[in-house]
Amino acid sequence: MSNDRVIIFDTTLRDGEQSPGASMTKEEKLRIAKALERMRVDVIEAGFAIASPGDFEAVKAVAEAIKDSAVCSLARALDADIERAAEALKNANSGRIHTFIATSPIHMQYKLRMQPEQVIEQAVRAVKKARSLCADVEFSCEDAGRSEIDFLCRIIEAAIDAGARTINIPDTVGYAIPHQYADTLRQLLERIPNADQAVFSVHCHNDLGLAVANSLAAVVAGARQVECTINGLGERAGNAALEEIVMAIRTRKDLLGVYTNIETEHILSTSRLVSGITGFPVQPNKAIVGANAFAHESGIHQDGVLKHRETYEIMSAQSVGWNANKMVMGKHSGRNAFRARLEELGIVLPGEAELNAAFTRFKELADKKHEIFDEDLQALVSDSLGEEAPEHFKLVFLEVASRTGEVPHAEVVLSVDGVEQKVAASGAGPVDATFKAIEAIARSQANLQLYSVNAITQGTDSQGEVTVRLEKGGRIVNGSGADTDILAASAKAYLNALNLMQAGGHKTHPQAADV
Questions:
Q1: What is the CATH number of domain 7-278?
Q2: For residues 64 and 90, is the Cβ–Cβ distance under 8 A?
Q3: Torsion from C-alpha of 183, 185, 186, 188, nearest 10 degrees
Q4: Of 207, 286, 346, 476, whose CB count within 10 A is highest?
Q5: What CATH code is assigned to 393-510?
Q6: Where are the domains of the chain?
């Protein structure tokens, strides 16, 4: 490998789903993994195989489906974890076991309750075990950002001797500052005798808003793998955002002197896919993939861009997947035009059945909305390809009355396993009344954790995309629905979540798994 190339290690499917509420099913992980492969991500961390049977099956499915990217499973420095990871990866075209152990004094004392020598011994044993089962082994020093440099040198040298060929220096709690983090990387590369036998990697969290800055500082210091996620997804404040890392490297090649193999034109479609599946909307002013990332309202800026784009844009919108010339679809658009536009947007449907279902939904939407934009198609297909769950609850009829000075009232008819039930309820607002009416029939006893509405396009006829997050017994599900009628979209999203809950669709949150 060229020493100028930075390996992109995407952990959206593992660390990203540790965001509360972002747990993904096997089918959802497969869809994202295929998008990452299309983007030419080097390594896809598909999950934590021992966390649950569902995570094992997801890692296994991704390992079998992905051919052009390496597929990785996380494992603690324990035989059972490593064996489970190897089993999940056994059919991978290119597999990697990523094993880790904590190295900071606070973690060793209070979490592991182990002496430093014991930690080194266990790390070496784990790496050797992993190498006996998989040729590609990565070793991580958990909480390296708060670890002592002398101890890091000792354990990393031992891990490389044991067979690790990627060494990760994670800033697990987002504590590092760029110049200090870069200095840590430089010292490790200079002081560890066998450092040239491994690729040094960084994995930065964003607790201080410095994940991308720290990652890039480490690259300047010699790191040649960056671990990141789409949209910066991840637990707490998230991880370094893949799109920001990649575009910073591409835009400032003059300063950084490195490159990646990422096909950046697929960044936007992948961002929207992840956002739709997880229910985490992208803020409008988010770098690279936010709706306003290439918008100019100031007259001075508009004038400059019209005269010469680079006066106020350091990269082109098209380079990350934005299409300046959007094709407007409508009720007279045919199946071939529909298919062609999806392909241009980077949306690949599994087969004709899925295409037909999506096209039917497109025609239904076209009867309600005169112009259908790219964003509508993204939402429509995401809705169509959403996780399949038996429709235990199905919306038959919804009527909502809301008048100034009066309590909103909703009347709902649901089909419950084919039997219609009708109920009415009042609430603090029309959505609250709708949900209370649905709950009067469903009696799910689930807790509503999130209700989010996003306008998919501009204009009063825009579709509303609603995400509903429900929690019950430690299990979290995300339901979604889109419609030009925001109340109908809300009801669809709530029922989608209830059906997923009923079917046992989403697994327990990774942090709640008994590992």
A1: 3.20.20.70
A2: no
A3: 120
A4: 476
A5: 3.30.160.270
A6: 7-278, 299-384, 393-510
